[in-house]
Amino acid sequence: MPMFDFAPLLTPGLPPPAAKWNGFAKYNFIGGHNDADQVPVEALVKAANDVLKREGKDLATYGLASGPLGYRPLREFLAQKLKRSAGIACSADEILITSGSLQALDLVNGIFLARGDTVIIEQATYQGALTRLARLGVQAVGIPLDGEGMRMDALSAALDDLKRRGVRPKYIYTIPTVQNPTGTILSEARRHELLRLAETHGVPIFEDDCYSDLIWDGKRPPALHAMSKNGGVIHIGSFSKSIAPALRVGYIVAEWNLLARMLALKTDAGSGALEQMVLGEFCAAHFDAHVPRLTRGLRAKLETLMDALNEQFGTAAEFDDPKGGIFLWVKLPDQVDTLKLFPPALAAGVAINPGPEWSTDKAYGKSRTRLCFANASHEAIRAGIATLAEVCRAEFGVPNRIANVERARA
Ligand SMILES: Cc1ncc(COP(=O)(O)O)c(C=O)c1O
After folding, report:
1. Does ligand 1 come within 6 angstroms of the Cβ of 101?
2. Torsion angles phi and psi, residue 193, rounded to 5
3. Is pLDDT above 60 for 408?
4. What local confidence, expressed as pLDDT, does residue 400 receive?
5. Sign of the CA dihedral 391, 394, 395, 397?
């Protein structure tokens, strides 16, 4: 049967088509997947059962009985949790529940950005933020990080430079609390400085705090949103990292005037109600006990990953111990190009995120890779890193000692 040709009808400027999914790699170090053994399945089942029995009839209306901002008990849980953990004083009416924090990124971008705009962003950052900016035709000015997060000297210089050129950036996007991919936490002193610089230059801050529950020692500075004196911070977060990414529940904290502009762009008539109801029910009773358990398990997996890298790569793999989260940002020797390492590694069953896709500066990212340690088992982490070392040596001649045994190049 002749196939209908849709191609000439497609709207111009579409992004490239998505790749077909062929299952996860045997050794899966990509994406932001979580630890399957740590999903609180039994408690979620009970929460679903309880909330549906009690409030299931509310599913008859769009937005439940809570209106377009999302399920009210979940927003109320968030308001008190954000106050307690991040110092944010907001009411449930200043929180918009979104379909993952990716939708939060889209909504914030949607109300601020037009082609040709400029934003400031960390030099190593979330790929999903970079691809969105590229698609929107927005220039991303990257600010280098060190062990304390975004460098304020570099930010100050970039803001001055833009001002000289008559450019007012639309926002400063930062992941200050367990940064993706570097795992750093922006110190409180730097938070003050960031807020001061942003205020001086009249630029809002876009704070993405989706990893902030996953800190090894549980200690975090207050959110930028909490510290701001002029209200110029939009804060987003997610349940993807603290509970489960497949639920697709995130949120935006902002004043009503901004949420009202975002709601006008939120075209899905409400994010999935069942997920919100189950989370609202689960979190009120179990969030505080669940998160430290999850974090302990993640820390153990990180230890396994760092041990495996030390054993298999020796000094050829450099990394700083992250403050929390699910990623390790690894620097391999300069001759390694992680974009070129990716295909043979995948063919050998190891999926890695190449550094250039997580950076505004492709040269900086070239020999770096981001490894997610949350999803693979301890055994898979060890076997996957051993395989990665073999592939890397075959392709780039490093590491030349594997498991402390000298190898000739293949
Ligand atoms: C920094 C950052 N922001 C946002 C997201 C989006 O997450 P989700 O849409 O699952 O909430 C991610 C996912 O990995 C992320 O790393």
Report:
1. yes
2. -65, -40
3. no
4. 87
5. positive
